[in-house]
Amino acid sequence: MRWNKTVTVIGAHAEGEVGRVLTGGVLDIPGASTLEKMQYLQANDALRQFVNKEPRGCAQMTTNLLLPPAAPGSDAAFIPMQADGTHAMSGSNAMCVATVLLETGMLEMQEPQTTVVLDTAAGLVKAVADCRGGRVERVTLDFFPAFAEHLDAPLEVAGLGTLTVDAAFGGVYYVLPRAQELGFRIGPDMAQDMVSLGARIKAAAQEQLPVQHPETAAFNSIDFLMFTDEVDPGQALYRNATIMPPGRVDRSPCGTGTAARLAVMHTKGQARPGQEFKMRSTINSEFTASILGTTEVGNRPAILPRLSGRAWIYATMQLGADPSDPYQLGYTMADTWGTEIEHVIPGL
Questions:
Q1: Mean pLDDT taken over the chain
Q2: What pLDDT is stored for residue 344 in this prediction?
Q3: 5-142+312-343: CATH superfamily
Q4: Catalytic annotation on 290?
Q5: Residue tagged active-site, from 90, 281, 285, 290
Q6: Contacts of 140 (CB under 8 A, 6+ apart)
Q7: What confidence score (pLDDT) does residue 163 get?
Q8: Residue 342's pLDDT is what?
């Protein structure tokens, strides 16, 4: 075996959504802040392609780059590298990162609880891990502020007519269409249809619903779509399905999407601080969500979301490439990389 590059990766998933953690082989990334490091990775995409594209990766996962903390008061930084690009924050991936940091001993575990402050490109996230017998049983995340930007906005979608949607920031920007308005209920049997519908609706939202974070210029586009549904509103039980580029459904209830949904619900008077909600995924995994309180972001009303869920380590691995391998940065094909293959095909 002769590799010209190698990285160490811990395989983990949070409520079904795979969030591998890259723990070795990358010393650091240029930039004074985690936001600047993310922007560097967006402009220099080789690492993401190397670990995420086939044969070393697949569309149905994220690889989180673990880095030294840049922000004062934080314990570690991470940047989620996904199929379509590098992003600022992910709730399910934060759960994976906190679990890996503690269960591998990179940070000392204290029972019954350990607090880990994660430095992300979207801000600091406090993760409180419930620990017992050397295992992280649950991770609770205190998010940065989330806020609604468009409420009950009309959205013209070719072939679907005029939809009523919301758009909100939960760490990244989401457009939130309602599954029942489109005539379906979220479930595994609808995954392919949701991917197709989601691509069309998100494209329309990106054209018709301008967004701009009031404090961070880099957050200025709708990156994701999350279908919303109800299970039993009387029991505060809801369902989410986030469509992830290049064409798949998030296996978890989606952390940043849940934060965005809570912001919309609060603005509409459907959620209050201290009230607890259960958010289920397409595969029935579950996050617990609540609102800690309210605040402002650039004079815009916002909430402070709290989310909790579980993560598990399932593998440790070394990824490498032989110098003779023609696919140094991997490759993608539309059979498994979905309907938005053009977003990831460059640099085959």
A1: 95
A2: 53
A3: Diaminopimelate Epimerase; Chain A, domain 1 (3.10.310.10)
A4: no
A5: 90
A6: 127, 128, 129, 130, 306, 307, 308
A7: 98
A8: 56
